[in-house]
Structure formats: C-alpha cells, structure tokens
Design brief:
ABC transporter involved in vitamin B12 uptake, BtuC; about 0% strand; about 80% helix; mainly alpha
Length: about 290
C-alpha cells in the first residue's frame, strides 16, 4: 500500500480491479484520518499566525524560514539524524526567525532584504548538503511536494502536541499579541515586554513552518500562511474576525486541496495552495463587489 500511489488505487477501484482497498476505505483509514487531523491543526496555526505576520508586514518570513528548515533537514540527514529532522530543524529555524526580526529593527537593510539573504543562502547550502545525502531528487520532494501520508506515528504525535501548544499560547496571549501587532509603541509605553512578545511570535511562527514542511513542502507553506490571512482581511472588519475567517479559509483550503491531491495524485502542498489561492480570489472579488454597493 505504501508504494502504491493514491491515484492508482482510485483508478483500480473504479475499474473493479483488485487494489486491496477501496477509495472510500482509503479516505476513512486511520492513517488518512490522523494525517488530516494533523493538517487541520497545522492549518489553524498557520492561519492565526498568518494574520499577525500580514498585519506586521512580515508575510514573506514564512518563505525564508521554509528554506532555512530545508537546509536544517538536509543537515540532519548529513549527520545521520534524518529520523529526527523536526527536532534538528526547530531550534535552527527559531534562531533564524529571531535573528531576522532583531536585525530588521536594528539594521538599515529592511525585513525583505534580510529574508532574501537568509532564504537564498539556506537554499544553496541545503542543496549542496542534499547532494551528499538523499540525492537531488529529494530536493524537489522536500521543497514542493509534501505528503499527509508520509507522516510516521512519531510525526503525528509530535505535530499534534506542538500544534495544540501553539494554539493554546495564541489564545492565552491573544490580547497582548493584538496590542503588539497594531501598536508597538503604545504596547511598550503601557509597560508590556514588547520584545518578549515579538520573540514569542517568532518562535510560534518557526515551529508552525517546520511542522508545515512535512505536509505542504518547504516552499509551499509560506503561501499557505499568506493567502488565508489576505482573504480574511478582505472579509473581516476586526482582528478577531480576521483570525476566525483566516482559520475557516485555511481549513477549507486544506481539505479541498488534500481531496484533489488524493483523486489526481498531484502534490499535496501545491493542491492546498491552489485551493487557497482560488478562495482568496473569490474573497477579493466579493470584497470589490461589496465596496461598489
């Protein structure tokens, strides 16, 4: 089963050939349900943090961190820790995220330039290291494909636990994250540890990106962070409304894209991002019509 593509299973089932499992059974299997549960939790994390990143004009940081995560995964494979790539990637990506945000505030380069430096450097280093480990074909798989069915039981457990922690921290610190997002100066003047909350945002974003790489692909996860938040910005009139809209759009996009991926055997990450893009265009059209009335 693991070596048989989902599309082959689906076609064989339609032709009443002996595929060993029906498409309906495939969708309701424990592995698929666990994978969809993980994807839903990661979607919620990406949606909530995406709103903050878009409003703070850090939307592209997901792209840069995804490529840093790719380089960290390649390094893990190089030193024989490929089964623990998540544990290796999280501290590396967190450090990069914190460094980018700190340098953005203290240097004259600007966030977009810093993200470009980190992402291109990490991509080059990652490709070089991959050449000596899993081979160049895995570069494409890691960067673009992603697969909900490639998750081991350990991946499922760790992703669920970390996603729940991210969501819980976000909910508990919602009011203060709101203040830091919209007015850093007033937040600092009111006695809030603004730097500390920026650090929390960096860490939560980094962990979400690392988790999303497994399901979406390193370069696809950044788009999935941006599109639902931009869609929500067209529909909602408040920060809370943006969070809720972004979460709903992200989960719908994930399920729609994953279903398309199951049926067509196309890369999961690309299908999810495409579904998210379609929903964003629909939201933009709806917003334009609403403004004309």
């Amino acid at each position: 089963m693991s070596s048989l593509s989902l599309f082959t299973v689906y076609v064989a089932d339609l032709l009443n050939e002996d595929a060993g499992v029906s498409f309906a059974e495939l969708l309701t299997s424990s592995l698929t349900l666990k994978s969809l549960a993980v994807g839903t939790l990661i979607s919620l994390c990406a949606a909530m943090l995406g709103v903050i990143l878009v409003l703070k004009r850090y939307a592209l940081i997901g792209h840069g961190l995804g490529e840093v995560g790719f380089a960290a995964s390649a390094f893990a494979a190089l030193i024989g820790l490929q089964n623990y790539s998540v544990l290796v990637s999280i501290p590396v990506v967190c450090a990069s995220s914190v460094l980018i945000m700190r340098l953005d505030r203290k240097s004259e380069l600007g966030g977009d330039v810093l993200i470009g430096i980190f992402s291109t450097a990490a991509l080059a280093v990652g490709v070089i290291m991959t050449r000596y480990t899993t081979g160049l074909k895995s570069v494409y798989d890691t960067l673009f494909k992603g697969s909900v069915l490639s998750l081991s039981n350990g991946d499922v457990i760790s992703a669920c636990v970390l996603s729940v922690i991210i969501i819980a921290v976000f909910v508990l610190l919602y009011t203060r994250l709101f203040a830091v997002t919209f007015d850093e100066t007033n937040a600092r003047a009111s006695g809030m540890n603004e730097d500390g909350y920026q650090l929390i945002i960096s860490i939560l974003t980094s962990v979400s990106v690392v988790l999303g790489m497994k399901v979406m692909g390193a370069m696809m996860i950044s788009s999935f962070i941006i599109f639902p938040a931009l869609s929500a910005r067209r529909l909602a009139r408040s920060f809370r409304g943006m969070i809720i809209c972004s979460a709903v759009i992200a989960v719908v996009s994930y399920f729609a894209g994953t279903l398309i991926s199951f049926i067509t055997d196309l890369p999961n990450g690309a299908c999810v991002v495409a579904a998210s893009l379609v929903l964003m265009l629909i939201c933009m059209a709806f917003s334009a019509v609403r403004l004309k009335k």
